[in-house]
Predict the 3D structure of the following.
Amino acid sequence: MNLNKLHNVEDFKQAAKRLLPRAIYDYMAGGSDDETALRNNLTAFDQYNLIPDVLVDVSNIDMSVNVLGVDMKLPFYLSPSGGSGLFHPDKEIAVAKAAAKAGIIYGLSTFSTQGIKAVGASSSGPKMFQSYIVKDREITRDHVAWSKEAGYDALCLTVDSSISGNRERDLRSGLSFPPRLKLSTLPDFALHPRWALGFLTSGKFEMANISHRMDALGGGMNTFELAHHLMDKTVTWKDAEWLAKEWGGPFAIKGIQSVGDAKKAFKMGATAIIVSNHGGRQLDSSSPAIHRIAPIRQAVGNDIEIIMDSGIRRGSHMIKALALGADAVSFSRPYIYGLAVGGEAGVTRIVDLLRAEVERGMGLMGVTSVKQLTSKHIEKVSQ
Ligand SMILES: Cc1cc2nc3c(=O)[nH]c(=O)nc-3n(C[C@H](O)[C@H](O)[C@H](O)COP(=O)(O)O)c2cc1C
C-alpha cells in the first residue's frame, strides 16, 4: 500500500478496516457497552473553538516538551496498547523504533506481545512501561525489575481497569488470546490473506510479559477470562504508593478523571496524571478526557504534569488539550491503525502527519512554543 496516499488518521482507519479480519479490527477500534464514551471522545473536541494571535513571527516553531523526565521533540507520544502482534507481524518493536526515530515516548503495555527486555533492546528511544498491579504481585515486581534493567525512563500505573470493560464486539466475535483458527473464524481469516499470512508466519503469539506465569493456564482466553485471572479488584492508593516506591523514578497514574483523584495523585507525589477514559473501552458514559483537563489543572496547580489521552485524531485536538492545561497528549488507535497498515513505516507516517498538523496549527495560532498555548487561546462553545 502506498502510505503517501493516506493523508490523515481517518484514511488509516479505513485502510486498517479493509486489511484486518473483522474480529481484529473490532478489538482495536471498539469500545464498551453502547460505545457512548468512544463516540463522545471524538465529538467532544468540537465543543471548543481556537482563538489565534496574529502578526506573530512563526518562522520557527518549537514543538518540544519535557514530561516524565524525558525531553520529547513533540508534544505527543504513543499510549500503551495490548496485543499489537494481532495487527502486524513486526509487533511492538516496530512501534518502539518509529517512536525512537521521532524522539517521543513509546508506552509499552503489560499485555504486549513482545517483552519489556526485547523492546528495550530494540530501541534506544524513550520508553515508559505501563504496569498493572495484578493479583500475583511477583508479576508486577518482575515488570519493575525488567523495566529498570532495560533502561525504561518512566512507569505508569493504569488504574481504570481492575474490572474489564464490557466489549460486546469481542464477545460477539469470540476473539481470544491468541486468536484461534476455528470453523467460525476461518472465513474472516481467509478473506484477509495478507493479514493471515503475516500472523501465521510471525512466530509464537504470546502475552510476553505474563507468559512466564500464565502459560500453565493454557492460553486461548478472551479478555474477560484474562482479566479474571490477573486483575486485582482490591487495589487501592496504598498499592499505587507501593508501586511508585518500588519503581523509584518518574511515575504516572493513568486513568484519572476526577478532581479528587487528581489531588490524591498529586499528594502521593506522582510525576504525572494521565487524564484518560481508556479510549472509551472501560467505563461507558465516562466524561471525555478533554473536558477534565481544565478542572483538574485548576485543582492541582502547576507542580504536577498533566498528560491527556482518549480521542486524539488531529493536531487541532492536541492544541486544544495543551491550551486547556495539558503538558502533553498521547493516543493509541491512530498509531495502531498505522501499524496495521504499514508496520514501522505506517507508524512513522502517522507520526509525521500529526507532527505536520501540530506544527501548522501552532503557526496558525501564532505561537512558537508549546508553553505559549494557554486558556486565552480557547473557548468552550455554549450549548
Ligand atoms: C487495542 C487497544 C489496547 C489497549 N490496551 C491498553 C493496555 O494494555 N493498557 C492501558 O493502560 N491502556 C490500553 N489501551 C488504552 C490506551 O492506552 C489509551 O488510553 C486509549 O486508547 C486512548 O484513546 P485513543 O485510542 O482514542 O487514542 C488500549 C487501547 C486500545 C485501542
